[in-house]
User: Fold FAD binding domain-containing protein from Dongia soli.
Amino acid sequence: MKPSLYFRPTNLQEALAALSENSWSVLAGGTDFYPARLGKALDENVLDISAIIGQEKISYTDGQWRLSLQATWSDLMADNRLPARFEGLKHAAREVGGVQIQNRATICGNLCNASPAADGIPNLLALNAQVELMSLQGKRILPIADFLEGNRRTLRRDDELVTALLVPDSGRPARSTFLKLGARKYLVISIVMVGAVLELSDDLRIVTARIAVGACSPVAQRLPLLEQDLIGRQLETSLADVVDERHLAPLAPIDDVRGTAEYRHDAVITLLQRSLMELSR
Assistant:
């Protein structure tokens, strides 16, 4: 068997050069990489990007927040500069394993893992985040909804590295939340998740609504009909009554060991209503 290669570059150019010359499995925090290979011989080349320096983990420039490839869930939770629109993503961060996992797992890595039940993805969709990809040929930027193709599948090319997530900030007042249903409170894979961001006018009317559901489709999905029906409404607890069956059209829940499709369908309705009630308080 051909021996596997291991490379740990210390700068971005070294990493991109390696990706242009060979096939690699990219290792960031490793919190999914190692468990997936437990008890198996390593038969792939590993590009460990954990030593890359020169990038600020979380930064803000020209109306846009940048979460770099090195930013972990703990970094996100600890950053007090982040505005209220990030509160839902911070709630999701607390659900990503235990503290040890949160200290190691990167936000970009969680996205690239592309699990339908990834806790971070619904709120990244609700934040209207984009993915920054770089190769020796240059940089391109994709909306997260386009970047994710399905379970463990993304549009990242073999010669590309996800270098950051970009989150626009309109400057308007905003509220956000994240709700998750699992078989227990902590350390559990989601049955259903809801991430939501509402941008508001000065008189607390909804200017923009972005709501996404995870673990009920091959990739997390926004609910455009619900978002449209919320725009212009006053922020009040009766918003929960807006949720309707037709809003769930983009979803495709399945039966599995964690729950039936019917159960997921009912749970989505409940979590959406609870999310809107929470955001109205």
Observations:
- The CA atoms of residues 220 and 259 lie 17 Å apart.
- The radius of gyration is 19 Å.
